[in-house]
Design a protein that fits this description.
This protein has about 260 residues and is mainly α. It contains ten helices and two strands.
Length: about 260
Amino acid sequence: MSPFAAFSSEHFAAFSQLQTWVSLLTLTLMEIVLGIDNIIFISITVNRLAPGEQERGRTIGLLLALVFRIGLLMSISWIVSLRSALFTLNLPPLVENFGVSGRDLILLAGGLFLMYKSTTEIHTKLQGEEEEAHASAAHARLPAIILQIIIIDIVFSFDSILTAVGLVDNVLVMIAAVICAMGIMLAFSGAVANFVNRNPTIKMLALSFLIMIGFMLVMEAAHKEVEKGYLYFAMAFSFVVELLNMRLRRKAKPVSLRDSPYD
């Protein structure tokens, strides 16, 4: 049976309309924006691998994200059903009639894991253990790194797909947007990873925002919706400020001992 058998002729005919291509472009841009945190996480995580394995780890991680998202899009009705409550919590006076859905459990687990992983990376960097970690990294660690990437890929996939459902009702358009976005992210993932790893302050900033994203996922699991636009604006603003600081540091004149006022 053809993998496209589930699609009707209307799905393919929609591509003859300009509105479909506008929706495809919009959804592709949205997938890229929502995938930035995924790229950052993958870039920082694969940095634990030996230098020769890092590019391979990034490629496998992003390809797995593509496979997961396409698979989840093919099961869109199941994804939507995850919003239904599995059980209800009644813990007065803390909470009453709180319906816990499958989506809540996934977001909670993913958010806590992301916060834990980012905090651990910050601790390692502050303790100066990064070089030792690089020295001890080996090929045998690749499966463990891929497992971590899979966990976060699943969480980010749910988040982006649930957002896409509200924008487009054509599953074929969603799949095309995911493929286009993932291709662009795969092409630039190496440059992003090198930039983050070359600049310790950028890496620390990225880890801090991953903690914020993890906290946002936990809040969404608690049915406290957080406006993502505010979060991404804060990330962009902080990134621009740090770029200005990096440029200022490069322009700053090195202090010479000969210029010391105490001579």
